[in-house]
């Protein structure tokens, strides 16, 4: 298993909302969990991680019309940084608190 620098001080995250309710939503969540475990090492570049997950979701669902919105990235509290990407949602808005 390759080791990534961000694993020392950072925390990776995936926050997603898939369409559906009940069993369908549970199956989508299961697929996202599997894809997290398959691709989380790519989070060094959140855009690469998101592209890999999207590619796999397209393979899984094929011609089934479905929709998801998500954001993923790395929070490094030690360095005070956030590196992330988002898809299927509105433009992110950042606010830097005064120190």
Q: Give the number of DSSP strands.
A: 3
Over all CA atoms, what is the radius of gyration? 15 Å
Supply the number of helical segments.
3
Shape: globular
In terms of DSSP E residues, the strand content is 15-25%
Low-confidence stretches: none
What are the secondary-structure elements, in order, as H or E? Answer: HEHHEE
Report how far apart the termini are. 40 Å
* Total domain count: 1
User: In percent, how helical is the residue content?
Assistant: 25-40%
Q: Would you tell me the overall average pLDDT?
A: 83
Keyword list:
single chain; 99 residues; alpha+beta; 3 helices
Q: Could you characterize what this model shows?
A:
This protein has one domain (6-87). 38% of the residues lie in helices and 24% in strands. It has three helices and three strands. The protein is globular. The relative contact order is 0.21.
Q: Quick recap of the structure?
A:
The chain has 99 residues and is α+β, with helices and mostly antiparallel strands.
Outline the fold blueprint.
Blueprint: H1 6-9, E1 11-18, H2 22-39, H3 46-61, E2 68-76, E3 81-87
Antiparallel strand pairs: 1-2, 2-3
